[in-house]
Amino acid sequence: MAVLKVKFTKNNRDRLAQVLWILNWVSVVSGVVLFSLGLFLKVEINKRWELMAERDIHSVPNMLIATGLVACGINFLGGKICYDCADTTKFLRWKVLMLPYIMCTFFFTFCVLAGALMCYGMRGELEEALDQGLHNAMRYYKDTDTPGRCFLKRTVDLLQIQFHCCGNSNYRDWFQIQWISNRFLDMSNREVVGRLRSNVEGKYLMDGVPFSCCNFNSPRPCIQHQITNNSAHFNYEHQTEDLNLWSSGCRQALLEHYSSIMQSIGFTVLIIWLFELWVLTGVRYLQTSLENVLRQGDPDSESDGWLLENSFVETARSNFNIIKSLGKCNQIDTANNGDPNMDVSSRAHYGPENVLPKQLPLAS
Amino acid sequence: MALLKLRFSLPRRVRLAQGLWLLTWVTVLAGAFTFSLGVYLKTELLRRAEVMDNTEIHVVPNILILVGLVIIGSNIVAGRICQDSLHSARFPPWKPFLLPWYGLTWMVCVWLFSAVVLSYALQGQLEESLKVGLRNGIRFYRDTDVPGRCFQKETIDKLQMELRCCGNTNYKDWFEVQWISNRYLDFTSKEVKDRVRSNIDGRYLVDGVPFSCCNPASPRPCLQYSLTNNAAHYNYEHQSEELNLYNRGCRQALVDYYMGLMNAIGPVVLSVILLQMSVLLSLRYLQTSLDGVDPENPEADSEGYILAKGIKESLMDVKTTILKVLQFGQVTAAADEEVGVGPSGEKAATSN
To answer: What stretches pass through the bilayer (chain A) (predicted)?
Structure first.
């Protein structure tokens, strides 16, 4: 009971080989696409390395890059094989290699699928990295005189302007950190000293935000300082004022940006996976039909092609036995008291002896 | 004394026709590229249409768009002509169209050249248009409640942030305009009343700028208000503070941007002109060499030239042809006497 048996004439086999040759070259192109998608994702993540804390987010683009390169190689080889398969004599060259090739490609498609699923699963790690990274970036916003951190102010400002966001979760995150450096604070001023003394860590905290949080859609000029103090500004009520600053947090904005990139990449990789599987099925049919042709002896005759010679269960069992016997090849056979030098004649059982030949019924 | 005469054997004629066919298709692509460049320039100009006062500069992309389409059409026709040129039966029907085709192609080259010249000549116009447009934008910045002007604030803010510029000429333009609307000013406050009374027009002028002028590269948090007052901020000297706001004026930034675009388009247009001229010359050689082929001996050599006579003589020929065409409608003095003879008399007059 072969799995999905299909009959192939000589013409069918030749056409299958040609089509598979073309499809393998298309797969090489899709491998290049996979590689470039991985590269694109890596570049996008590296662009904002300052805002991401150390997490294992580089595994996804690296996986895609590696898978893309391997896909190019495997499909290039597959194209060569299929090109030669149109001629039965040339097929003999590849006959031994074909089954291992198909097995490798089958396991490789799992890698492609894993790459696609990792794209969708990366979101959690990314959120953590962004949360920690943005928290640190905002903390070091004022350190424009510290080497290594002097560009963080510019990075955060440009991020908030470009992504239309403010703070980590929302604008109130700026109220909890000191974002104005001490060198721009007049320590002789009573108000400044009062603010510094009002909290345990001696930080100059205020209910104000940097200018990059300002929303240009607001009908009034931006109110950056004393945001929660309604009496500080004319005709201002901070609970109802929703256009003054950007309302979304930068973590959410960046997460959405990366999620949309990764969803489209994941979708493309899934399509490539289905295509690879399809090409693999074609190569398997080609291999089995050509082997059957060789078994029958006549290169121009019809032959059967299948996915598996026996049903799934039997194939699984026989493979399992092979693996078991591989494991046993070093073990000593205990039947001869452990002596491997004794000659044990193997008795193959061909059925009972002295059986009369049966009379075959004549075809009517 | 034909101009630039060349000898063409049959294989050479065939190769000329094939090469010209390829060249026409390359020129079709160049025409498509010119068209898309024109569309791109027009969309870039339209994007900032709100800060431009007039649309005179739009003549440059309009020329590029039209000429691009004409180049595509005329070169497809030229390709067809090349394909038919090697068939002695199919080529003659095209002959009457060749002279108008040359005229059209010559006009196309002139238009393209004028587009390049205009893109530099109209720079002054562009700058004037931007000056007026930006001045209005800054004046109406506060009118977010007036229909028709309510998006000026957003436009100017986005412009200043994207182009990294402030004001018309520089940031001091904001000091001369009331950019804070009256509905956000507390007229019971002494400070507001003093400021409003301090100038003739009763405007609330401040030495401050909107937040969109702030430069993110500054090491200190942005100072927007009391810019000229050193005492208002700790450790601040407004003459030496360069990174706080953007230094460029938006007019200069926009002019630089558009001039950069036109400078990039210039060489492309000049190479399209070269391509089109080479198609014109090659087709002229093909036409004249095919005309010179002896009908009894089609495989013999023939001569190709650009003009049958020298330049001066050709111009004189053209002049006499034009005069003849103009005189077609005039009745000569000889025909006046024979006006009673009728059509035969007119025929005699025109045959002169």
So the answer is: 20-40, 60-78, 98-120, 265-286
State the nearest Cα–Cα gap between B263 and chain A, in angstroms: 29
The strand pairing partners of A303, in sequence order, are A8
Angle between helices A250-296 and A59-85 (to 10 degrees): 20
**What ranges do the domains of chain B cover?**
1-170+248-311
Mutate to test the interface with A, among B187, B192, B234 (most CBs of A within 10 A): B234
Which positions in chain B touch A189 (Cβ < 8 Å)? 234
From chain A, the residues in CB contact with B147 under 8 A are: none
Number of helical H runs and strand E runs in chain A: 8, 2
Query: Minimal Cα–Cα distance from A209 to chain B, Å?
Result: 10
CB A84 within 8 A of CB A98: no
CA distance B287 to B20: 12
What is the per-residue pLDDT across A323-353, written as a single tens digit (0 to 9) for each? 888 877 666 655 555 555 666 565 566 666 6
CB B145 to CB A210 under 8 A? no
A289: region left, alpha or beta (phi > 0 left; psi from -120 to 50 alpha): alpha
Chain A CB contacts of B157 below 8 Å: 216
Does A77 touch chain B if contact means CB atoms closer than 8 Å?
no
Beta carbons within 8 Å of A329's beta carbon, 6+ residues apart: none
Give the DSSP per-residue string, A213-246. GB-TT-SS----SSTT-GGGSTT--TTT--SSB-
Q: Using CB atoms within 10 Å of the CB of residue A203, give its burial: 0 to 12 exposed, 13 to 18 middle, 19+ buried.
A: middle
**The token pair that represents A169 in the structure block:** 């979760």
Q: What would you report as the CA-atom Rg of chain B, rounded to the nearest whole angstrom?
A: 33
Name the least confident of A59-68, A190-199, B320-329.
B320-329
Give the closest residue to A133 by CA, choosing from A116, A149, A117, A114. A149
Distance between CA atoms of residues A62 and A60, nearest Å: 5
Window A:83-112, CB contacts with B under 8 Å: none
Residues 6+ apart with CB under 8 A from B336: none
Cα–Cα distance list, B283 to A214, A313, B3, B67, B322 (Å)? 63, 75, 15, 20, 24
Torsion angle, alpha carbons of A211, A215, A219, A221, to 10: 0
- Report the complex ipTM: 0.79
Interface probe, candidates A234, A235, A245, chain B, greatest B C-beta count within 10 A: A234
- Put simply, whether A261 touches B (Cβ < 8 Å) is no
Cα A220 from Cα B223, distance rounded (Å): 18
Contacts of B220 in chain A (CB under 8 A): 144, 181, 184
pLDDT tens-digit readout, A73-126: 999 999 988 888 877 778 888 888 888 899 999 999 999 999 899 988 889 999
A185 contacts on B by Cβ (under 8 Å): 234
Chain A residues within an 8 Å CB radius of B243: none
Which amino acid makes up residue A305? G
Is the distance from CB of A140 to CB of A154 less than 8 angstroms?
A: no
- Residue B140 contacts A, CB cutoff 8 Å: no
pTM for this entry:
0.80
